[in-house]
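Page 37, continued from 36.
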């Protein structure tokens, strides 16, 4: 018997190649999606190092409050 479980409908997770910014510091694993960045050349939110643009396959997320448009 399972208490508190509701019938859950499984939804397919949609992914696509997404532009991201990765930290350039060797010992930091910080990254951020392009549509969630706060400036044209963002700094790492974890260590404040410079970041570089890359692409990664990620689950599709929409930013309901975009700050910057690319």
């Amino acid at each position: 018997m399972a208490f508190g479980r509701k019938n859950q409908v499984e939804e397919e997770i949609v992914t696509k190649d997404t532009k991201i910014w990765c930290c350039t510091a060797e010992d930091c694993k910080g990254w951020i999606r392009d549509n969630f960045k706060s400036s044209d050349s963002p700094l790492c939110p974890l260590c404040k190092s410079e970041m570089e643009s890359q692409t990664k396959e990620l689950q599709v997320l929409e930013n309901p409050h975009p700050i910057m448009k690319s």
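The CA atoms of residues 11 and 69 lie 29 Å apart. Flag for discussion at group meeting. The beta strands are 15-23, 31-33, 51-59.
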